[in-house]
Amino acid sequence: MPELPEVETIRRQLSPALKGAKIIGVQVRFAKRISPGKAKFIKDLTGNKILGVERRAKVLMFNLSGDLTMLVHLKMTGRLLLKNKGEKPTKHTHVVFSLSGGRELHFEDLRKFGFLKLMTNKEAKKWLEDHKFGPEPLKADFGWQHFAQCLRRKPSAKIKPWLMDPTCVVGIGNIYATEALWRAKIHPLTPVKKLSDAQIKKLYSAIITELKQALKDRGTSADDYLDAFGEPGAHDRKLKAYGRAGEKCSRCGTKMEKIKVAARGTTLCPKCQR
Q1: Which CATH number fits domain 144-238: 1.25.40.10, 1.10.1710.10, 1.10.8.50, 3.90.226.10?
Q2: From the candidates 11, 58, 202, 218, which is the catalytic residue?
Q3: 104 is catalytic
């Protein structure tokens, strides 16, 4: 599932590429994950200009003329692909945006969990506020004390699922929670109340390091992710824990194990992460 590095990579690619482009046509091939309904979605988008693309948590925000915002969440298998006019859509392409300048933006989603929501700017702002997203981990004002305070709101919570809760800190999913906990030598099932300040500091640093490196690598393509130009990310070659069950820990040589944490497969080193 695209997490912060993947979604931010797509934003950084699309925002300059699409800024000022006019939406001259919209083809909806699968309408169940768009709102409002198909006819209004097409009518309200057509003729508008794209002013820029922003991100909050894992949600992309297309700022449009006409006091409109389109929110896009890729969920597990969604993709936004910038293509030349006339390129054949795949069977998983749900929406095609025809743009000025001879380009198209294709929204694909194999598992059909992603969504596109067209709203007024005021409605979009309220939608984001209602979801109570936590702080952005790569913002300059997100210090380790803030992180510790956030974690300790739920002292009995297991650390891995709490890291993945966007009301605490946004953008961290299964991949980067697994990697950060390996880096920090913390077992994924450790209750927050058992973590010392030193461990939380180490985990904070691990998260920042992992996310920054993954962003530099244009994300992780361990699953279905492709960037806006259809290219895989390069970070999967640097993963130390995620997807490494049965391999030797690169730090101590112990065989990596896979367990279930909050119904998600989680790989860890039984020696390093106790």
Answers
A1: 1.10.8.50
A2: 58
A3: no
d(CA 265, CA 260): 5
Q: What is the pLDDT of residues 50-61, one digit of tens each?
A: 999 999 999 999
Among 174, 163, 166, which residue's Cα sits nearest to residue 266? 174
| Confidence bin at 224 (pLDDT 50/70/90) | confident
- The correct answer on CATH 3.20.190.10 for the domain covering 4-130 is yes
pLDDT band of residue 35 (cuts 50, 70, 90) is very high
List 3, 8, 104, 108, catalytic entry: 3
Asked about 58 being catalytic, the answer comes back as yes
Global pTM? 0.96
Name the residue with tokens 């992460």.
Answer: 273
Q: Are 272 and 257 in contact (CB under 8 A)?
A: no
Of 75, 112, 201, 264, which residue is the catalytic one?
A: 264
Domain boundaries of the chain, sorted by first residue: 4-130, 144-238
CA dist., res. 66 & res. 224, Å (int):
34
